Amino acid sequence: MPRRERRSVTGVERVGAYTLLRLDRGGLEPGVPGQFFMLEAPGRLLPRALSLCQASPGELAFLLDAVGPGTEALCALEPGERIHVFGPLGNGFRLDVERPLLVGGGIGMAPLPYLATRLGRAPAVLGFRSERHAEAAALLPDAEVVVEPRLVTELIDPGYEVLACGPEPMLHAVAAMCPGAQLAWEAPMACGYGACYGCAVDVDGELKRLCVEGPVLEAA
Amino acid sequence: MPRRERRSVTGVERVGAYTLLRLDRGGLEPGVPGQFFMLEAPGRLLPRALSLCQASPGELAFLLDAVGPGTEALCALEPGERIHVFGPLGNGFRLDVERPLLVGGGIGMAPLPYLATRLGRAPAVLGFRSERHAEAAALLPDAEVVVEPRLVTELIDPGYEVLACGPEPMLHAVAAMCPGAQLAWEAPMACGYGACYGCAVDVDGELKRLCVEGPVLEAA
Amino acid sequence: MRLLNASGCLDALTAPGVARSLDGFVTKTITPLPREGNAPPRIAETAYGMLNAIGLANPGRERFLAEALPQLRELGVPLWISVGGFVAADYAETCAALEDVEALELNLSCPNVDEAADSAAEIVAACRAVTALPLYAKLSAAHPDLSEVARAVAAAGADGLSLVNTLRGMALHPRTHEPVLARGQGGLSGPSLKPVALAAVHTCYAATKLPIVGMGGVAAGRDVVDLVACGARDVALGTILFSDPDAPTRVRVEIGDADLDEVFGTAHESAAVHA
Amino acid sequence: MRLLNASGCLDALTAPGVARSLDGFVTKTITPLPREGNAPPRIAETAYGMLNAIGLANPGRERFLAEALPQLRELGVPLWISVGGFVAADYAETCAALEDVEALELNLSCPNVDEAADSAAEIVAACRAVTALPLYAKLSAAHPDLSEVARAVAAAGADGLSLVNTLRGMALHPRTHEPVLARGQGGLSGPSLKPVALAAVHTCYAATKLPIVGMGGVAAGRDVVDLVACGARDVALGTILFSDPDAPTRVRVEIGDADLDEVFGTAHESAAVHA
Ligand SMILES: Cc1cc2nc3c(=O)[nH]c(=O)nc-3n(C[C@H](O)[C@H](O)[C@H](O)COP(=O)(O)OP(=O)(O)OC[C@H]3O[C@@H](n4cnc5c(N)ncnc54)[C@H](O)[C@@H]3O)c2cc1C
Ligand SMILES: Cc1cc2nc3c(=O)[nH]c(=O)nc-3n(C[C@H](O)[C@H](O)[C@H](O)COP(=O)(O)OP(=O)(O)OC[C@H]3O[C@@H](n4cnc5c(N)ncnc54)[C@H](O)[C@@H]3O)c2cc1C
Ligand SMILES: Cc1cc2nc3c(=O)[nH]c(=O)nc-3n(C[C@H](O)[C@H](O)[C@H](O)COP(=O)(O)O)c2cc1C
Ligand SMILES: Cc1cc2nc3c(=O)[nH]c(=O)nc-3n(C[C@H](O)[C@H](O)[C@H](O)COP(=O)(O)O)c2cc1C
Ligand code: FES
Ligand code: FES
Q1: Which atom of ligand 2 lies closest to the CA of B18?
Q2: Shortest distance, CA A51 to any CA of chain C (angstroms)
Q3: Which ligand is nearest to the CA of B63?
């Protein structure tokens, strides 16, 4: 069951071009990898959706790309500050896969460290747009890493069952290569729990709420 | 000429029930006693009008009564924080008086310390609603002080030329006792420089802008 | 004072716990035919509010009656059905098909419906003819003479008013200067709307004395009290539910032991009513 | 892009330096007879805006023409005269009495004027008949079909539009729950209005292609650019002047070397226009 709690920031670390935000876990469940939390972004009206990146008994950690006012406000938090956190939300990855391959593009690597922990060390491939962004691969030590102009899709062996998260063009490419792949999508979200109908995406030709049906969807 | 500058807070001190906010003076002129400044109130849309309380070569100081969100935000400032300050504005007290008597009611004492300095030690009488409020009389050391239920008007000798600031009922009482008294009035102000017409008050049967015609007006 | 959700701001089936924390659940507007809604992106944040161009996404009347309604009844929360359409008959047919619910809210302010006073009154009259259920007319504040619209729907048989719907708004992407919403414009809700909502409730209460469900930017107990002082009997939470699903409970705590019956209408006592 | 003040938000005679920092000075609305305006308090701050119920305080046409106008001319700033009234003849008589100014702005959205499209068009037509000066029709966004109003005033001969005037709003005193303004309701201006202003400019530009003076919540260069992208040729600063008389200069610095001609209308390119 998702809960909403006011949690304290326990750490804020730069990881290459990204930021790892650690919160004390309180009574929040980490949920299934690929599920997400809505984090209060100080000074903004709406919370922001973030995938859980790491979970420990005492902490939940989120990997952030500061792309706008909400993520910037979250990256500017300081230890001791408190924000409301609501989750876990949505449907995560199915973990009953025999030959998993984790595929991440850019900030799409965010859910993979927690996913890897829960799967017990699956192979992973990551693509980044610069060396600086690629430093975040340190959070997934055994991953194979490419930097643009090389694309992460070059590293995908279709013999594996792919669990992927990344920018839309990457997910479309993965879907085309690997039917049955589990893909974690993004959409603008106001609520994260089915209330606003803002996160509509085309699922099999119908507009559906990504926060309810996803964010992880199976490639057709 | 009024200027608008971003100034640093140099001190915030509790004075009885009030707060003395010191700002570094920069290029701002202190103006004539009874003139006022518009101070940016952090987090609020509109600035707040405050009479200059003390002036030194390096500082301007304002005495504040925290009665609402704007004055509360100003009293919560910390040394080093910066706010926009615009002034001096309006018409202050005429200083060419032969037998001045300064009369202050509550936070209405705010302009009197600077006025006393400029007049060279005039007698002063102050009224407050509690002993705690009366501690602010320390800013005007030689003043005679009464606390409710006694009223400051009891101390007024009509032989003097009165320069007064205080709550409306007090000013009306002073006006009735002392025709020709100089009275510093208040009105809700959005701009302080004649732009909004928000500060209209009845002056001799006509609505006029207090920030342009006053805030100091002569009792009829 | 009953605390409700604003239509389109909660799905009781995906969040039954939130629905149960309210005194009534208001459905998203139901239209005769199913609607997918507009293309995404259909939400955007503004400095002090949000925009939506959901476009009345809903399963349509038949599927709502057959599938959603029976499930909603099981929640045990009083149900308000928001009814939409494009001509009076659309509304009336849906109203005629409904029974045994707390109230019907006629969404007269959806962007594709002509909002002139006549037409709003016509819709209300058509619905009044086919149902004895309490009928609330939901209006937008975007009218030069809101009291005229309120009086017209009252005369046509509305039992109450729901105020306010969103205002037309727009936000641009900072880099491209293109609209953030795929549809261009959307409905502005949230804190920016609160002063407008207070004025609309104040105007319409003075004009009609009908029971009003007040809404628009409510985020805290204080906002509920303000709406009640302006003349709202009941209050709905909209945008705040997106950031705080616990808002119903919190808002009740914040209202505390303020006597809302005593507060009711106080904003009409001193001021010259402006209607 | 000319940067102006919004009518009623600057007095060039008490603040000539601010007026000279603009590309034109717009007067407070002038009515045929002198008006004291409403009783105080007539301003209030809201969470993200302000309310005013000034009530068109002005010296009246005769005194304006005899006293204020000659003094304003001496400033050397292009003058826009805001004209108000209660019936079309009020406006037309004032327009007829004016010459040798940059433009006339007809305030068609003051609370005491019937704002229906007909009447606005009637006023514009009456003024058009008596003056060859550029006529800007100033509208409020509070209309269910703003594009209809815009087309009607364009057809009646308006050369341009000024958008937007304030929205009806209200604020209550936290303790007493009485209205803060003596008049009860007032006009909402400031940041809360910005998304509404963008949508109104966007709608009316699409409907008429007339030159538009955009305004509503402008506080920074970014807001000017957004209005221009929606279709505003010129932009006016209102509420921001109260907190920052240096805003015209600052806003120009913030716009920097953004090419406003290139930005003009970009918000119409991608989105389905919603009019
Ligand atoms: C389920 C889910 C999980 C997520 N997990 C993570 C995560 O773990 N880490 C993470 O960093 N992010 C994650 N995100 C994305 C994150 O929620 C968004 O980046 C965040 O909400 C952006 O908010 P903002 O205010 O920072 O930026 P916004 O202002 O909302 O803008 C976001 C980006 O979109 C661009 N943009 C917006 N509108 C337009 C337009 N019309 N044209 C062109 N560009 C536009 C902006 O420039 C900016 O780059 C997730 C999203 C979802 C839905
Ligand atoms: C020229 C001038 C000089 C001034 N000098 C000083 C000074 O030196 N020091 C100082 O402290 N103040 C001074 N003031 C007053 C100061 O500007 C105000 O107290 C301040 O603007 C209040 O802002 P706020 O946001 O704190 O309170 P607000 O929320 O604006 O409210 C102010 C007070 O009015 C009450 N109030 C508002 N509306 C109503 C209503 N409808 N019914 C009943 N009560 C109501 C509020 O409860 C509160 O007590 C001066 C004012 C002027 C015009
Ligand atoms: C995402 C969203 C969807 C909405 N959908 C509807 C709807 O289907 N029918 C309706 O009458 N109002 C709808 N509204 C308007 C709300 O019911 C409410 O009138 C408005 O949001 C103002 O309240 P708020 O400021 O508390 O959100 C919607 C509002 C939002 C934000
Ligand atoms: C105090 C005040 C007085 C105003 N007086 C007038 C007026 O006399 N005539 C007019 O057309 N608009 C008047 N307006 C409206 C403004 O010109 C402008 O349309 C509105 O405030 C929106 O812009 P803003 O958000 O930048 O303030 C007034 C606004 C304010 C705040
Ligand atoms: S984010 Fe609100 S319904 Fe999905
Ligand atoms: S405070 Fe704006 S005119 Fe006086």
Answers
A1: 11
A2: 17
A3: 2
Whether chains D and A touch (3+ CB pairs under 8 A) is answered by no
Report the complex ipTM.
0.94
Task: Evaluate: CB of A178 within 6 angstroms of ligand 1.
Answer: no
State yes or no: is D110 an active-site residue: yes
Mean pLDDT of C108-129: 78
Q: With bands split at pLDDT 50, 70 and 90, how would you rate the model's confidence at C275? A: very low
Rounded average pLDDT over C201-218: 98
Question: Which residue CA neighbors atom 11 of ligand 1 most closely?
Answer: A64
Neighbours of chain B (3+ CB pairs under 8 A): D
Pocket test for ligand 6, best of B89, B207, B209 (most atoms within 8 A of CB): B209
Contact A82, A9 (CB under 8 A): yes
> Chain D residue with minimal CA distance to B205?
D36
pTM of the model: 0.95
Sign of the CA dihedral A55, A59, A60, A62?
A: negative
Burial-class residue D234 by CB neighbours within 10 Å (0-12, 13-18, 19+): buried
Sorted by sequence, the CB contacts under 8 Å of residue D5 that are 6+ apart come out as D18, D19, D22, D25, D26, D236, D237, D238, D241
Q: Is D55 in the pocket of ligand 4 (CB under 6 A)?
A: no
- For residue D188, how far is its CA from the centre of ligand 4 (angstroms)? 9
* DSSP alpha helix (H) spans, chain D: 16-20, 61-63, 69-74, 88-96, 117-128, 146-155, 194-208, 221-230, 240-243, 247-255, 260-263
Q: Cα separation of B85 and B93, whole Å? A: 21
Of the candidate CATH numbers 3.40.50.150, 2.40.30.10, 3.20.20.70, 1.10.540.10, the domain formed by A3-89 belongs to 2.40.30.10
Output DSSP code: residue A1.
-
Domain layout of chain B by residue ranges: 3-89, 100-218
pLDDT at D84 over 60: yes
Residue written as token pair 């009447």: D119
Letter for the amino acid at C73? R
Ligand 1, from A186, A201, A217: best to mutate by most atoms within 8 Å of Cβ?
A: A186
Q: Would you list the DSSP string of B183-208?
A: EE-----SSSSSSS-TTEEEETTEEE
Q: What is the CATH number of the domain that holds C154?
A: 3.20.20.70
Are residues B187 and D40, on separate chains, in Cβ contact within 8 Å?
yes
Q: What is the pLDDT of residues C131-162, one digit of tens each?
A: 999 999 999 999 989 999 999 999 999 999 99
Cross-chain Cβ contact C184/D225 below 8 Å:
no
Structural domain count of chain C: 1
Sequence-ordered list of residues with C-beta below 8 angstroms from that of D70, at least 6 positions apart, any chain = none
- Block means of pLDDT (10 residues each) for chain A, 220 residues, are 94 97 97 98 97 96 97 97 98 96 97 96 93 95 92 90 96 93 96 96 89 93
- pLDDT at B1 (0 to 100): 73
B100-218 has the same fold as B3-89: no
**Which chains have 3+ CB pairs within 8 A of A?**
C
With a cut of 90, say whether residue B63 has pLDDT above it: yes
Q: Report the topology of domain B100-218.
A: Rossmann fold (3.40.50)
